[in-house]
Amino acid sequence: xxxxxxxxxxxxxxxxxxxxxxxxxQMEYRFNFIGNLAMESGYLLVKLxxxxxxxxxxxxxxxxxxxxxxxxxxxxxxxxxVYAGMFMINMYGLRNKIKDGDLDIILTKPVxxxxxxxxxxxxxxxxxxxxxAGAVMVIIAWNRLGIPVTFLTIGGYLxxxxxxxxxxxxxxxxxxxxxFWLMNTSAIAEITDSFWDFNNMPMDIYTNxxxxxxxxxxxxxxxxxxxxxxxxxxxxPAYMAWAxxxxxxxxxxxxxxxxxxxxxxxxxxx
Amino acid sequence: MIIQVxxxxxxxxxxxxxxxxxxxxxxxxxxxxxxxxxxREISFEIAEGEMIGFLGPNGAGKTTTLKMLSGIxxxxxxxxxxxxxxxxERKKAFKMQFAIVMGQKAQLWWDLxxxxxxxxxxxxxxxxxxxxxxxxxxxxxxLDVKDLLNVQVRRLSLGERMKMELIAAxxxxxxxxFLDEPTIGLDILSQKKIREFLKYYNQQRHATIVLTSHYxxxxxxxxxRAIIINQGQIVFxxxxxxxxxxxxxxxxxxxxxxxxxxxxxxxxxxxxRELTGLNATLQVPRTQVKEISKAILDQLPVIDFNIEDVPVxxxxxxxxxxxxAGHALA
Amino acid sequence: xxxxxxxTQSFLLGFETALEYRANFLLxxxxxxxxxxxxxxLWTAIYNASSEGDxxxxxxxxxxxxxFMAGLITRIVRSGFxxxxxxxxxxxxxxKFMVQPVGYFAYRLASFxxxxxxxxxxxxxxxxxxxxxxxxxxxxxxxxxxILAFLVTLLLAVMLNFLIFYCVSAISFWxxxxxxxxxxxxxxxxxxxxxxxxxxxxxxxxxxxxxxLPFKYTVNYPINVLTGKITGAELFQGLGIQCxxxxxxxxxxxxxxxxxxxxxxxxxx
Lengths: 270, 330, 269
Prior knowledge:
By secondary structure, chain A is an all-alpha fold. In chain A, 77% of the residues lie in helices and 0% in strands.
């Protein structure tokens, strides 16, 4: 236990260095940084076009008013920042690292290889655009909906956000682990990446069986639907229990797949 | 023994790729899987404090061996113990004690000053502040890069970058160091500096150093013992300068002459390897060196006269040819 | 015919590369299906909740048809060569073209079509299946004249989008790392071209502005020609604007590339 805590502390410290180094490295390329901001703003614009459609159509979908939908979309946008800025860039890099044999050095380091290979890069641009925009949308929606601001609502909402981060890390890392066996996985990445956009709208727009698949089989809906559902007081107990169990199941699966993948790492021998 | 290797083998699977539109279409449906044996049943031992070199042409299996010893690759079969650990189990205690530097793979953050990466390694290897400061001071002093710590790595020359890579690898004072082509692409001066450093470090710290190189000079200057690998197998192990003992049949005689002589004049004494102006090189059978030398001195206008071994490179080249021809070694 | 061979060569090379990545291409088609899927459900929910049968001038069935077509046609016109141009300029490979008789523009155009053709044909095939399905099951009708006009406008749309992004790629001469900027521009043009939602959704004023800009003529306009929303004089007016923009972007591309070349030489690429 003592040891585990020490390792956690060490990894946390190293993570802070990763963040610092990433930001410093990014500042070296200002145009790239600005381009990055532009790209993410472009995507944001597309997400906002959905908001626009919802408000202009002004309909209540399965009991969700446009304001409630805005809460969902805001949550989605904010989590997109976390996913894109903290996870996705590493996962794209991971594919190339495996292909070019760049895991070599990482494998010899006395820290968790998975940690170092999948969390090393942080993109401030991607992260901040979406997290700020998402937060603004959530706050606006929260106000318009008149959800009480209590420790329970805010704390619960943020707690579910934290669980969502774990779920999205695991869920989107899994297909990338395939790179250990397959050489060309950019299409897989493209597919799973677009998977993320399923959360663009609340899952209530889908039919019931799609909803259940998206919650229990391919638990993609868990990520952005559970936090606002909790805030709106629309969380059934079954979902609540699932939300607490799922992150641990996924972490175990990712861990197993990762170890297996690493065994067949071929280091792109020169 | 710090490293013990027994019957270690590694093979890779790959797919056959043919060019052309027709084959692109063919590959849609079927791809031929091939297996390449990179390392075949090699065994050797390395003692603590030793500095040993792996030599061999590209693709001989040097790097693959090194990667297995550092735990990067799982072998297909065979065993190895390094520092008492099985490397590919990748135990933390094992990782804390060694370092690997690869000439073609950098660990420094490209866009940051080297000291940021060094500090990161300090945290990764749990080095105390004090030890970190003194090691850093010592290494930068030895390699003469003190002023470059705050310069972005991408702005450094290749040689400076390699020095920084070395520092990054040694910051936790490893007992065992693997170096894969540490001087590749460097200018002569940097090569020399790095060689001197490694020699010094090996002597002062009694660190075991295993290095691969295709520069003969690296291994010749640094390592008492060398292991030569070709096509995944060990073809020679021992003092590099004794490679030629295996082929003890020939000696080289170098001559400087006062007058020009014809090719035919020289050919009477042995095989003429070179004749340019007043300089000539002959290869003669070892058993007859004495007689032939005497005859040459008697019959040719010699100013200077030297008897040498066949150069190490040639001995090795000969070694490879033999192996490829399928001959067993003596 | 030797000069032609260079272009056929680039065409074949592009074609081959595309086949090489066949699995990736097929999978990328699947990923194109996701937004269609989401939008379909969104519209279904909206039309179900709405009391009116007609929203933004589209019936429910027309809206779904639009969504599907927009997804497919965005794929057909999509460029992607701007990254290759960026790399050519960055790596100095572009220098080769400045001395070779192969014009870079022609080379890009040929390899673009070579690269895209297998995919485009496949998407067109899907479109045919879609049209058949829509007319059999939903009773939507498509006039032969509309289909023929659509094919013409589609070809022009591909050309226009090629030219727009050929202009955009010229940024490579000024900014080295433009990859993200390209993506930003791409996604915004998709939105403005009506590749996600019909432009009418965003209001009258917006549509008026879009009528003047070129983007609409790469996706929204061909679709409306196909569905018969645009016919007669309006169709020819659209064709005219399409051609006008092709001309304008061609001139602009020439201008930008000429200035860019001068900079490339000055910087010593």
